[in-house]
Amino acid sequence: MEVVKPADPVEFLERAELVLADEARHNLILGIAATLRDNPALYDERQLWLVVEEGEVVGAALRTPPYNVVVGGGSNEALDALAREVGEVPGAVGVVPEIEVFVAAYERVHAVRSEPQVKQGVYALDAVVPAATPRGGARAATVADRPLLVRWWGEFGVEALGALEQDEEQNGRNVDHRLRTPGNGIALWQTDGEPVSVVGYGSPTPTGVRIGPVYTPREHRGRGYASALTAQVSAEQLAAGRHFCFLYTDLSNPTSNKIYVEIGYRRVCDAIQYAFV
């Protein structure tokens, strides 16, 4: 068993096709790899790993420093090999049970301990159940909305993903990527001319697309804006030819989990984000 580093995201995606064949379970790593392929300048650095046994890829992971390593599918032996290869990282994220196998191996190899930061549900949708329509309406975000979007991207990261602080530079890159890259985008719900909720989409998988972030500032919550906007964006992506839409929810937030199920999302599996300390 050998850990190799693909030359680029194209090779990574081609060789990892079988081990990452379940798009719903592996939409995060597939979407990030596709983003690296389509927009190499989005991140300053990238790290790609494949585990190969007798010519067959049996494990995969990637990282865009300084962020956590994203663990894809793989056998227990492959995940152990990845834990030895990736070096010092602040944390790891992936679906259950693979992420738990990787984290246990990483603790053993690197003599650290782990702390679960965010427990998430991975959801998929192939048909939208129409949501109630609140006051206002949806529109596509534009470059003129950039300052607001960068701020909301940061607030979402701190609140939902456990970020310690806002990274305005990287948030700006993420917003610019969504606004300027085909297949990606950002939608806003607004009332009386004021944006009150945001939904992004992008990071395409072979037949699907990831929805997120979904964020409504606290002062505008409880009015159905996020439900209506997520339903509309998801329906538009399916109408454009995507077979699936995927999203992640914070399992500690029963409200968000409930509204996604109501518009047609089904829970596929769970994922956990760990920090190493």
Proportion of residues in helical segments: 25-40%
Query: What spatial form do the alpha-carbon principal axes imply?
Result: globular
Determine the structural class based on helices, strands and strand pairing: alpha+beta
Largest sheet composition: 12 strands, mixed
CATH-defined architecture of the largest domain: 3-Layer(aba) Sandwich
> Could you state the order of secondary-structure elements as H and E?
EHHEEEHEHEEHHEEEHEHE
Q: Give the neighbour order of strands across the main sheet.
A: 1-2-3-4-5-12-6-11-10-9-8-7
Number of helices: 8
Highest-level CATH class of the largest domain: Alpha Beta
Mean pLDDT, as a whole number?
A: 94
The residue ranges in which pLDDT falls below 50 over 5 or more consecutive positions are: none
Query: Might you state the CATH topology name of the largest domain?
Result: Aminopeptidase
